[in-house]
Amino acid sequence: MWSKSSFGQGTLLGLDQSTEVYAPGCNATRWTQVGATNTFLGRQLIAGGCQGPHWKLVKARMDWQAGSFTDVADFLVPNKTPIAPPGFTLNTTYDPSAIVFEGETWVAFECTGGGFPSGASTCLGPLQGGQLDLARSFVAVRADVDGDHRRSASVPKLVVHRNRAYLYWTIMYKDTSRSQDPIVNITTRGIELVRESSGNQRLLPGGRSPPISTTHPDSYPVWPLGDTDKTDTILDTFDVKSDGVFVYAVAARGGTEACNVPSTAGPIAGCYRVMISRSPRAMGHHIFGRDMLPTADIEDINQVYSTFATDDQGRLRLLSAVQGFSKLKSWVIAGDESQVCDPENQPAPTWGTRDGDCARACSGLGGTDRVNPCHTYGEVSAGDAYDAAHCCKPDGDTHTHAVTCSIMDDGYSNEIPGVGTFRFPDDNQVCNVAGTCRRWVGKCQTDAGPDGHTHTVSFRVFRDGYDHITHGTNAIRRQGDELCRPGSEG
């Protein structure tokens, strides 16, 4: 059972009232609603029909009564179209997602073309006069290629939660040396978008200079795979939506050779089974996958490219491609108006595992079967419950720490503690502002935060492009133009 929220005007129970929707084109099955309108962005093959490998973005209006898209018009037809940074040109654009943030509409979409690595990347840009502003658009997350190992940045998803913008992407990880079954797994990562303070004022992934890699260390894996189950190696997240209290994600699970892509031959039991999860936070490690909407009645429908949309009667719907990519269907997300707790504060219905959830409580939720929702404290006994007021801090309630580190010689000898600023001369040393130099820097500690707590700091080293990232260590040393971990040559 899910707690009451404005998302579904009640506890979300499942999907109901399925209707078919006409898709305007072969495999034109990924659509995103633009704000609170009946305007949608989607994909079509440039050559028309089912011909050719290249895609364009189109704009259309949804006629909910007829179950069809009308007034279909080109939105972005790539033709070696330049896009930042220099050296990239577009020849395919598809699978869009849109948000309205700080008065602007932003669109993320899959993109490939000249200068791109093999595999899909994610591009991002704002609208200007109803069209994509290419002068402010850019490659946000690039596909990664490392020999036989390839990771895409596919099916981008945008969401605004508590006045902050976030981007998620699906990583299809392939090992091309495995000719019979190259797909290793499909996962989802995400990162907050941070606006530039000057210039084009773009929304940059993590505030970093784009494009970032698919596994950039500032990004998070947001929905875990099964640890040992081979039928649980696919977690294909399609869309994310916020109601201001929770963030909801819809995905499909699968796995094994028979189920690593949606079946075009018809539904396979348990293959690409749709799942919906929610979290009070928009970003963090494995925030989705704990608090689940019951979907047992639809798990075998074999859905793909599912997106949330609001129809002309104000009902929340799930718009999905079914039977491979052959048709679209729309489901109403049903609700239950029952309260989280009654006026006498009797226990709510069984909540199940709620790690990661910080629901608004009626008045203490005494007796409710709960798990501590703050991530850091672990599970608590059934019967205990926490109100939001003394549980998780909202996303915007943040603070910073100053950090001080030691410099030292090999073996952690001749340590000079309490250094906050360093310089790196050309002689394999690290020096503090007093001019004292050592080979190592580390053993860092934050100053006390608002409530007196502190943190230790660890380092990870990696190559250009943020690849080959090591595990954390408490110190690193200078070695020529490289930084090294203990016992490592770089």
What does this structure look like?
Helices cover 0% and strands 44% of the residues. The protein has 490 residues and is mainly beta. The protein has 3 domains: 11-336, Glycosyl hydrolase domain, family 43 (Tachylectin-2, Chain A, 5 Propeller), CATH 2.115.10; 343-397, no CATH class; 403-484, no CATH class. Strands 6, 7, 8, 9, 10, 11 and 18 form a 7-stranded mixed β-sheet that branches. Strands 12, 13, 14, 15, 16, 17 and 19 form a 7-stranded antiparallel β-sheet that branches. Strands 27, 28, 32, 33, 34 and 35 form a 6-stranded antiparallel β-sheet that branches. A hairpin with a 2-residue loop joins strand 14 and strand 15 (164-175). The protein is elongated and about 75 Å long. The termini are far apart.
